């Protein structure tokens, strides 16, 4: 622990922005391991996910938040509350924008919330690997006209371009403080949460239209397999809102569910460092995104934020 060393810095950094700008990709990049799931579906992240980056000089606790936009159901209200509640508990806010796009309505919706906060706000322009260098200054200037940012740092979270420079800039703004987590810890989330997210990620990748937004994953059991030594048995239920969605997730002769399980099992084995026997079921819980009791049952507890 670095608690007694003068000059050691530590602090909390919130990663915010509209959906699909690469916040989770950035978090996975800085911690060096997959702890936040990724897909091209808006609002893939639903809870806040904390990633810890520890060096000899500092410890940075990054908080990946759900993509912010105007909520359309109780789950959307929950996700907005999760993101907004990080504003008052961090030392730096990273507003992540896509360099591919100009400032839009959703970006302005987020920036409006940040006005008046007594926290340094960085503009992090992501996806610069997809932007012609001549276009980048115009994109940056568009955002600077909307908000007075403490720092502006263009990056590619996918390729790692300029990410180290961003970390160095963040370090300049952190206060002196203790090491909150052991040096080898990269997230504060239990394995059960990450496993449920890995399964949900594969379901997102393999389904279409309204189905991905209606999916939640509940881990029923994680335990050593009694029949096979050195193997872990994971039992999980994929929840959907309608019978038609259940059919899509299962697929013809169970093909889609089998593929979800096959892909998820590989990531879970990497996470646990062990062979995994994964059992999946699909159940219907009608309109669960608009029912507080089901949101709590599925892990979305707004009293924790």
Short recap of the structure:
The protein has two domains: 165 residues, P-loop containing nucleotide triphosphate hydrolases (Rossmann fold, 3-Layer(aba) Sandwich), CATH 3.40.50.300; 114 residues, GMP Synthetase, Chain A, domain 3, CATH 3.30.300.
CATH topology of the largest domain: Rossmann fold
Number of domains: 2
Instruction: Return residue spans where pLDDT drops below 50 for at least 5 consecutive residues.
Output: 38-47, 301-305
How many individual helices?
A: 9
- What is the CATH class designation of the largest domain? Alpha Beta
CATH superfamily of the largest domain: P-loop containing nucleotide triphosphate hydrolases
Which CATH architecture of the largest domain is right?
3-Layer(aba) Sandwich
Q: Roughly how much helix do the residues carry, as a percent range?
A: 25-40%
With strands numbered from the N-terminus, the spatial order across the biggest sheet is 2-3-1-4-5-6
Structural class computed from helices and strand pairing: alpha/beta
Order of helices and strands: EHEEHEHEHEHHEEHHEH
Distance between the first and last residues' Cα = 27 Å
Largest sheet: 6 strands, mixed
Strand content: 15-25%
**Total number of beta strands:** 9
Principal-axes geometry comes out as: globular
* Mean pLDDT reading: 82
């Amino acid at each position: 622990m670095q608690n007694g060393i003068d000059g050691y810095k530590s602090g909390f950094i919130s990663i915010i922005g509209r959906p699909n700008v690469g916040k989770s990709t950035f978090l996975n990049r800085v911690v060096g391991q997959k702890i936040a799931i990724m897909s091209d579906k808006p609002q893939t992240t639903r809870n806040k996910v904390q990633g810890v980056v520890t060096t000899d000089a500092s410890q940075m606790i990054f908080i990946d938040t759900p993509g912010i936009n105007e909520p359309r159901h109780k789950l959307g209200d929950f996700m907005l509350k999760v993101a907004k509640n990080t504003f008052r508990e961090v030392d730096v806010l990273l507003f992540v924008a896509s360099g591919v796009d100009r400032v839009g309505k959703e970006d302005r919706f987020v920036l409006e919330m940040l006005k008046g906060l007594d926290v340094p706000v960085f503009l992090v322009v992501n996806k610069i690997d997809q932007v012609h260098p001549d276009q980048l200054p115009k994109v940056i200037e568009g955002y600077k006209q909307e908000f007075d940012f403490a720092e502006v740092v263009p990056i590619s979270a996918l390729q790692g371009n300029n990410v180290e420079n961003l970390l160095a800039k963040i370090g300049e703004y952190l206060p002196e403080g203790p090491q909150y987590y052991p040096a080898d810890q990269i997230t504060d989330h239990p394995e059960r949460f990450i496993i449920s997210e890995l399964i949900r990620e594969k379901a997102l990748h393999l389904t279409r239209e309204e189905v991905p937004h209606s999916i939640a994953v509940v881990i029923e059991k994680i335990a050593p397999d009694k029949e096979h030594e050195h193997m872990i048995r994971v039992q999980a239920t994929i929840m959907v809102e309608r019978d038609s969605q259940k059919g899509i997730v299962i697929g013809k002769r169970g093909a889609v569910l089998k593929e979800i399980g096959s892909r998820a099992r590989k990531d879970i084995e990497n996470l646990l460092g062990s062979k995994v026997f994964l059992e999946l079921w699909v159940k219907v819980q009608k309109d669960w995104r608009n029912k507080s009791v089901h949101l709590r049952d599925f892990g979305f507890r707004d009293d924790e934020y």
